């Protein structure tokens, strides 16, 4: 359960968004410049709203009226960026283990194996990010975020930097993730077809405002 | 050319000791300052930046004289340190290390600052979303990615420290076995009628050390670039 009600002014651009989502995958849909990334950065805690509140599973992570702002590193929210952002000085195995180390979580070999198998990244473990293809990088980024055991997973155009062929390569993994990983997701995209396949609920953004919310049919 | 004499060895070893201590002590300060200059905006930043670079353009004899005024036994800081902590810089090898550390500081800071500035800050954001508190982000992402720059800065700073002359001789004089480094030994030798051969040997050693340091710094800089690209 995610409840967002925020305002943010960034130069000329103003964002004013309010929505609640119960869905397993909340699709955040809008053209580029509609404020999707700004909104997701606020949910992640990387950006502070000027006014408003963000509540995840009953836990208030932002409330400007009460002076609450939980920093990103204490939110337990996974974030998969469009450009993967794997740590270049660490190999794949170390990248995957990073969130567990930072959160002082115990090793969970069963869970690690499940996610590594789900994403098919076992063979990449010893490689450096520079030696991975774009699709492989994105799968490792997904695994890295999931292995930090987040209570919510944010995906900001995770297929945006990939060509058509690569997109089709990753999509099945995302569908499996939705059905098997058991982590609610917020999936940002400007591609209606992508969201139709993945999302269970849609929040439509236009020029910093929520224009409609509802099932996948609002995309048509 | 004949072999290196024990007096020359004393100067060489002293230079190495002074330069190594100066570099090791200055490095943590250099990293902190480089980070501050690369990542923070604050009042007086350009002033601080200028202050760090001052030893590069100020006549070394002025820096040495200022050190003498400040850290000499009657100096404000020097008097306090001598009376309460028993630390004396004036006319000691520790003073040579202090002079070398300050003179080489701009060269130490610069590559570190450049390598921190070259790091993609979005990687630090990613670390934060994975649960790393700011100091952990620094230790696990920023510093490892800047490491080749840190090493390059240390090598350059070391090379500068080992060759430092003006500030050192002004601050701690030229005492064989205590403050006579390679540079001040060469200075003394070329003023002695038959010192040419000895001076020549020390000159060659200086050139080898400086050249070696520059090549090492260049190599570290190239490593830094490769590291940032994840190869």
UniProtKB/TrEMBL annotation, chain A:
Any Pfam family matching the protein: ABC_tran
SMART domains named in the record: AAA
Keywords assigned: ATP-binding, Nucleotide-binding
Keyword Phosphoprotein among UniProt keywords: no
Entry coiled-coil feature ranges: none
InterPro entries in the cross-refs: AAA+_ATPase (IPR003593), ABC_transporter-like_ATP-bd (IPR003439), ABC_transporter-like_CS (IPR017871), ModC_ABC_ATP-bd (IPR011868), Molybdenum_import_ModC (IPR050334), P-loop_NTPase (IPR027417)
Highest taxon of the lineage: Bacteria
Every ABC transporter domain range: 1-220
Similarity remark: Belongs to the ABC transporter superfamily.
NCBIfam families, alphabetized: modC_ABC (TIGR02142)
Role of this protein: Involved in beta-(1-->2)glucan export. Transmembrane domains (TMD) form a pore in the inner membrane and the ATP-binding domain (NBD) is responsible for energy generation.
Protein name: Molybdate-transporting ATPase
Originating species: Bradyrhizobium iriomotense
Gene: modC
UniProtKB/TrEMBL annotation, chain B:
Keyword annotations: Cell inner membrane, Cell membrane, Membrane, Molybdenum, Transmembrane, Transmembrane helix, Transport
Location in the cell: Cell inner membrane; Cell membrane
Segments crossing the lipid bilayer: 12-38, 50-72, 84-109, 137-159, 198-221
Domain ABC transmembrane type-1: 12-215
Xref: CDD domains: TM_PBP2 (cd06261)
Membrane topology classification: Multi-pass membrane protein
SUPFAM superfamilies hit by this protein: MetI-like
Presence of the UniProt keyword Lipid biosynthesis in the record: no
Function per UniProt: Part of the binding-protein-dependent transport system for molybdenum; probably responsible for the translocation of the substrate across the membrane.
Family the entry assigns: Belongs to the binding-protein-dependent transport system permease family. CysTW subfamily.
Protein's UniProt name: Molybdenum transport system permease
Organism: Bradyrhizobium iriomotense
Taxonomy of the source species: Bacteria, Pseudomonadati, Pseudomonadota, Alphaproteobacteria, Hyphomicrobiales
Gene transcribed to yield this protein: modB
